[in-house]
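Side project, low priority. Logging it here so it doesn't get lost.
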Amino acid sequence: MLISEEEEFRIGQQFAASIDKAAEQGKLEFLELPDAYLNSLGMQLRDVSKRPDVPLRLFIINDSTVNAFAVPGYIYVYRGLIEQTENESEFAGVVAHEIGHIVARHSAKKISQAAALSLGEDLFLAIVFGNSSAAGLARVAGDLIVTGTIKKYSRDEERQADLLAVEECAAAGIDPQGIVTLFRKFEELFKESPNALELFFADHPYSRERYENVTRYIKQLGLKRGLELDREAFRQFRRSVMSFPKPKEKNK
């Protein structure tokens, strides 16, 4: 791991700035909701995670793609994914999964690995031993941001984020079973319309494998009964999201 936590979140800010610029240019649209439910849920899950002090902000992208992604300090959830969720347990599983990526420092690992491959041995060792300004490392991070590679994770990283999501949901009093039901739903949706889940399946393990792993882990943890499946706050949040015109509808 070549970068400090401070550098990690500075890189996250760089990525967020690039997303903001894309929104200003009309390339994407954020949904601005009047209630604070989204960030409140994020804080609830972050506070029981293994990195409860990390900065965190959450955003909704008004796009029908079924996807979500995280970079240090920021989580972006697509409208299409919210539309697929039927209760808070399912939605919280998505948010907790993305928090899992941040908790496990997956973006920082990706930057470190890319640096080791591209900087050359001398500069790489200089960074490792603190004898460099790390300008080369910043360049590597910038390249990963521009190409979008920073938000793509390996299959092992996705599996780890799934299991962290189970722990976070349970610790927050939310039933992690929603993670299983959502993966089952994705599997069926993929059979009916592969393109709807194109981004999701491009970088994520196949859903059957994932829900089987999560099911085993839930049983292994022996979670207490009575965990929350759904709340009115989520239902109201989802109704608010659904009330916004979709991008194509706005352009008609």
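Brief comment: The first helix runs from residue 5 to 24.
Revisit when time allows.
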